[in-house]
Amino acid sequence: MLALQGDFREHAAMFAASGATALLVRTPEDLAAVDLLAIPGGESTTIAKLARDHGLVDPIRRRASEGMPILGTCAGMIVMSKRIEDGEPLLSLLDVTVRRNAYGRQVDSFEADVEVKGMGSVRAVFIRAPVISELGPAVEVLGEHGGQPVLVRQGKLMAAAFHPEIAGDKRLHERLLAMADEPRDRG
Ligand code: GLN
Fold first, then answer.
1. Where does the pLDDT of residue 103 fall: very low under 50, low under 70, confident under 90, or very high at 90 and above?
2. Residue 78 lies inside a defined structural domain of this protein
3. Measured from the CB, is residue 43 less than 6 Å from ligand 1?
4. In the prediction, which pLDDT does 108 show?
5. Which of 10, 145, 165, 173 is flagged as catalytic?
6. How many domains does the chain have?
7. What is the pLDDT of residues 43-75, one digit of tens each?
8. 85 touches ligand 1 (CB under 6 Å)
9. Is the pLDDT confidence value at 107 over 70?
């Protein structure tokens, strides 16, 4: 997991529960040691600042172009996106536009069941969640909530507006682990 800020410990718990060894990534050297990456929820502007300070932006982009699977949740999805309404993108990997904190004050946080393609119902925790306002042609929607896409995949990149790691659902992490074993062109 990218372990700069946010709920990376919850991601570590999901990987451990899936039988994987979870490593904390804080430097380019750490990144070189992992097969895949989870980018946690938290505060996207803080994660972006720290990732720049730690010299991680180009190394992550390079690994992604080489086929490393990445799962981003909530703030993690925001930093993976190519376009952020009223904001600057960080990794520019996922061909979507996101609007931060888009669910409004009164429903800042809520839980819901999201029907995920090929997986069934996933318990989703939304905390000041972003909305995907635009999808590029290569982006597949894997799950929706209230008519909005909330889980998407583009090749070996997967991003959720919600937190499966807080709900304790490890199936998205298991799917990411499976992607690490898939040949690159199938991803
Ligand atoms: N609202 C946060 C942001 O814009 C994301 C919240 C979260 O990760 N739960 O970065």
1. confident
2. yes
3. yes
4. 77
5. 165
6. 1
7. 999 999 999 999 999 999 999 999 999 999 999
8. no
9. no
Would residue 85 show up in a list of annotated catalytic residues for this protein?
no
Residue with CA nearest ligand 1 atom 2: 43
pLDDT surpasses 80 at 142: yes
Tally of residues, the chain = 187
Range of the domain at 156: 8-181
Residue recorded with tokens 């062109």: 185
Tell me whether residue 187 is in a domain.
no
Ligand 1 center to residue 186 CA distance, Å? 31
**Cβ distance 76 to 40 under 8 Å?**
yes
CATH number for 29: 3.40.50.880
Catalytic position from the list 10, 11, 145, 163: 163
Residue 176 phi/psi, 5-degree rounding, is -65, -45
Q: What does the alpha-carbon distance between residue 168 and residue 183 come to, in Å, rounded to a whole number?
A: 28
Separation between Cα atoms, residue 96 and residue 1, nearest integer Å: 22
Indicate whether 74 belongs to any domain. Answer: yes
Domain assignment of residue 126, yes or no: yes
